[in-house]
Each structure stands twice: as structure tokens, then as C-alpha cells.
Amino acid sequence: MKKYKRAIRTVLFALLLAFVFRSYLFASYIVDGESMEPTLYDGNLLMVNKAVYDWQDIGRQQVIVFHANEEEDYVKRVIGVSGDEIAVRDDQLYINGKRVDESYLDPLRPNDGLPFTEDFTLEEVTGHQKVPEGHLFVMGDNRRDSLDSRYFGFVPADTVVGKVDVRYWPMNQLGVQF
């Protein structure tokens, strides 16, 4: 009888621990769509760190999940944070006037002579010169096929669920830290 009580107590503790981790620290998400290729593919399973932004600020080039509306969550890359001026010229990203390396885009860039990312300034696509306080400017890595801040505007930072830390399915695409 003692063995059963110990086993039941262990199982209950494991379930409680799993509930706490799932509810407060991590969440699992499925990528839906092609907007983050080649970094993430349709159907990839992700582990999202929900607690990281309690201790640090959201940073440029981090891949995040956020609530796009009441029914949908989106996975995108943070391009700009509060106060940033953003522009793309000649297929190169500039933040606050400085060119930013986006080597993560290289595997998807086609050699068809067309720009992968069309030229724009923040003001042209949002009507603002800078990213407003408490907001983010996000884009998908598949720049030609991504519904992102160029179309729906800024993302309120308080809608961010967390940072994508692990791609755990399919196993042959296992990856950490995007």
C-alpha cells in the first residue's frame, strides 16, 4: 500500500509540475503557413518560452509568437522595437540608418533578379517615422509571401505570448534559438 501511495504522489506531483510549466512557462504551437520559411516550415511544432520577457526586453531579430486577434496567433521575426526607424533599400534592411545583416534569409532568396524584400520606409507602410512606444514591427522571413507589419501595422508588445526557443517536430529539423 505504501508503494502505491508513493507512486500516486509522484504521478500527481509530475502532473502538477507539467501543468505549471505548460500554463506559466512554456507553450506548444504549430506553424501554420509559409511566412517564416526557411526558418520555420508549415506544420513545425514549436516550444515557446512564455516567461523570458518577464526578465528581459524583446529584442530585434528574435522569433516570437503573438496574438494577432482573438482566434489566431502569428509567428514572426521582430524587426524593430520602440523608437526604431526602419527602411529597406536595395533589398537591405536598415534600422536607425545602419545596415542589418539578415543572413537567415539567404536560403530562400531566389536568383530571379527581383528584390526579395520590396523597398519601403516605416512611414510609407505605417504612417509613423518610428516604432511607437510599447509596440513592435514584425516581418516573416519569407518576405514575398508574409502577412506582417507592412500590412497590418505595429504589434502591441503586450500581445506577445513568448519567444520561440525550440522546434521539436519533425525531429530531423530539431532546432533551438532562432
From TrEMBL:
Record localization: Cell membrane; Membrane
GO MF term set: serine-type endopeptidase activity; signal peptidase activity
Catalytic reaction annotation: Cleavage of hydrophobic, N-terminal signal or leader sequences from secreted and periplasmic proteins
Membrane-related topology note: Single-pass type II membrane protein
Residues annotated as catalytic: 35, 76
Protein name, as recorded: Signal peptidase I
EC number: 3.4.21.89
UniProt family annotation: Belongs to the peptidase S26 family.
SUPFAM superfamilies reported in the protein's UniProt record: LexA/Signal peptidase
Species of the source: Halobacillus litoralis
This protein's UniProt keywords: Cell membrane, Hydrolase, Membrane, Protease, Transmembrane, Transmembrane helix
